[in-house]
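To: structure subgroup
Subject: Chain for Friday's discussion

All,

I'm putting the inputs and outputs inline so they're searchable in the archive.
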Amino acid sequence: MSYTDIILLGALVLTILIEFVVLWIAFRRPLRMLGYSALINSLTLPAAYIIDTFLGFYITEVIVFIAEIFLIKLLLQSTYKKAIIVSLIANLITALISFVALMF
């Protein structure tokens, strides 16, 4: 396993855990939320890594934010309003952490 693979795996695990907490607070179903967080981020994080090389950090974050709205709406059967709020909070937290990490 290369250094890059380890970093990406660490980013995936950290993102799953952070977004799990946001989902748990919003939906109050801990075991399901961990699974949904893992599924959603297993789809969006690898895609974000690829998209970021072409479009940059900010556009990638907007694309991930929009994709996660639809995934949250679909998987958790929430309203669009709640999906937008949850996706916004989760992605603001993880984007901020990513942005700070990229500075070092």
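Points worth raising on Friday:
Residues 3-103 form one domain.
The chain has four helices and no strands.

D.
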